């Protein structure tokens, strides 16, 4: 009985968190789906998104949710820059090259971030009150973060399916050579996709910062979570990423009711390896 | 001695390691031994990784898991059971090899980026798992009683001995690397690297070959782990499975030239030297990570085959000489 109460209390929280995880993973999986690159600079960009919220709220005094409209375009431009400088030359090289290229970007960002912010934890002191639902209390910040995550997903979906550049992205993901023959400027589309992926990472970081403390190094943990979610949902499948995010959020809420919290990562990564082995296309199918 | 040139590919690497081993005695400084220890450790680990990465073409992002796992098993024997260092090192190496065998049977079926992701997962899962195991001290880890060093003639003597063991392990890693490279088994690995399906058609039984390459690349890291934690006197989950150390190894192999015997040595040398310089320099010490990152990016973008690979492409004589 006690476990059920605990579950009821933690489950809604886990689901809300899952949406935000899902957005981070969507960025990773979009980049993989379009250009078969695993972006190892994902974590530091999530961390930069967190510091974006910090700077906007603590230094400029702007509401963090309005701040998203500043963080997102910066994330997009940063992604396009990273693609142009680091990824474009190795896009057709073996995987090791693109993994190491994005990892070197990771090192550069962490190095500069450490010099600017040190590695000590930061906190955004922002409160949106809370909503009580029976035995469970939902923090306002998490509720809005989940709504923002759903909004971001919806926008991405509309962009990919209803606009011309979005259709170009899907065409390039489907078959780059054929897309080029149809006159699609593939290099620009790849840069745009990479930008969108990092934009989603920055947005999720900006949202996470409203309810968790963070440091320049905390992106790494969310990057690993994004890998797990991406694999659960099928690498290259943005909708699968959202579902995978929810699954992970629920898992993180359910497991502590039955065993020590420190077992959560064991189960997460165990599941990750298992899904990779048994269903490498993810539980919900690969890219569409 | 007419065809000594044929063996230059192994003579040069061995001379480098021998030079490193004698370096502290020649300079007579205690700090020199620490530096040489770090470089020798890096050489042994990078050369081991090269068997899988350079010869077989499988990118392992979590190779440090063998260092941590072997280290943990050996250190447990050493500190809790009171087994001697020699047997602990041996058992550490064997248990890493065994782990690699079991893992290899499962995850070597994955190719390309999927394999790389799986190795990251394995490393993180193992770290979290060890964190929960009471036998290994949970999140606090294990500590070696200071008295344990008495058996080896006191702490100072034990440290000196650890240095010579790491040199011996570096020799072992190199000799292994060279013999695999020049053997028929190694030829099969190189074929898998170029095209796994074609290699299978030509009669290389890829699943077994890959598994053995994985096992051989895991043994020395396990032994190094035991030795390293013996030298430090304690082991913690956080120190045993650092993901960034795995990636540093990849950088070393890449820097020197993957798939060559001399490459990882050169890479380990260059990387550790550069790090040592950046961390201590006044100008770079705050942004040393960024500078290393920028250098790595340059190498990946412009010299993807590494220093040795680049030299081999340029010069026909070197191509014959450098293994």
Give a verbal description of the structure.
The complex is a heterodimer of chains A (about 290) and B (about 325). Chain A has about 290 residues and is mostly helical. Helices cover about 75% and strands about 5% of the residues of chain A. Chain A has eleven helices and two strands; from the N terminus they run H-H-H-H-E-E-H-H-H-H-H-H-H. Chain A is globular and about 60 Å long. In chain B, strands 1-2 form a two-stranded antiparallel ribbon. Helix content of chain B is about 75%, strand content about 0%. The radius of gyration of chain B is 19 Å and the shape is globular. Chain B has helices spanning about 10-25, 30-55, 65-80, 85-105, 115-130, 155-180, 185-195, 195-200, 205-230, 235-240, 245-255, 260-280, 290-300, 305-315, 315-320, and strands spanning about 140-145, 235. The two termini of chain B are about 20 Å apart. At the A-B interface, helix 4, helix 9 and helix 11 of A face helix 5, helix 11 and helix 13 of B.
Topology, element by element:
The complex is a heterodimer of chains A (288) and B (323).
Chain A: H1 2-35, H2 42-59, H3 64-87, H4 95-117, E1 130-133, E2 136-139, H5 140-162, H6 164-174, H7 176-181, H8 186-208, H9 219-233, H10 238-258, H11 264-278
Chain B: H1 8-27, H2 30-56, H3 64-81, H4 85-107, H5 113-131, E1 142-143, H6 154-182, H7 184-194, H8 196-201, H9 206-232, E2 234-235, H10 237-240, H11 243-256, H12 262-280, H13 288-302, H14 306-314, H15 316-321
Antiparallel strand pairs in B: 1-2
